[in-house]
Structures are given as structure tokens and as C-alpha cells.
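Chapter summary example: a protein plus zinc ion.
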Amino acid sequence: MIKKVDHIGIAVRSLDKALPFYTETLQLPFLGIEEVESQGVKVAFIKAGETKLELLEPTSPESPIAQFIEKRGEGLHHVALGVDSIQERINEMKEKGIRMLQDTPKPGAGGAQVAFMHPKSTGGILYEFCEKKGLK
Ligand code: ZN
């Protein structure tokens, strides 16, 4: 049911400042930048083999990423698990007593459907379920 770690989300203040470490120092391929308006973030994807790194820059002070950086500073934000049938996975987790931040999936970057588990239910880690259907 869980296929792989699809990507790792990293909160940064500035993509311009953060990207050279990944693209120049680590020499990882840059896949592109996308703005996800509903979540108040600009997202840059970096390819790290099978997995991607998702750098998240807040576009407004109300963005959850802005609030995260305010509280904890830049750094690791979430781990995304690639799944099929995301709604079923959400229902299954709820049946198992896991608190979900979304009862139904919402649109994320790259045309994915996403839903997050509450870190209080997972030992302190913000896990994302992420489903990519066909095209994108
Ligand atoms: Zn993510």
C-alpha cells in the first residue's frame, strides 16, 4: 500500500538562497518550481534518485510554512509516502486511531492529491500521503 518515500519536504526562507547547496554543492538535478497558492508556498523539486526533495518557501506570513519557520527555523518539515487510493488510506488510518489533518485529500504540488497525519499520532513526524494519478 505504501510504495516508497515519494519526497521529503524541507522548509526554507528563500529558494534562491537554498537551491545552490542542492544543485551546485550536491549536484542534484533541479526539476522545476511551482507555486501552490492554496498553501501559500513556492515549491522547488530536486531529484535525489528515486526520491525527491521538496523545498518549500512561504509566499505569505500566513502560510503554514512561514509559521513553521517562525517557530522552529528552517529545516526538515515532512516526509511524504507515495500511496495508491489515498482516500482509502485516510479512512484506514482513522480507523486505526490516527489523527489526520485532512479527512479528504487536497491538491498538492505536481498535480498530486495529499493528506497529512498529525505529528501527535506519529511520534513527532509530519507524514504526508501523496497520490499521483496518471498524467502529471
Ligand atoms: Zn510534500
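Key point: The mean pLDDT is 94.
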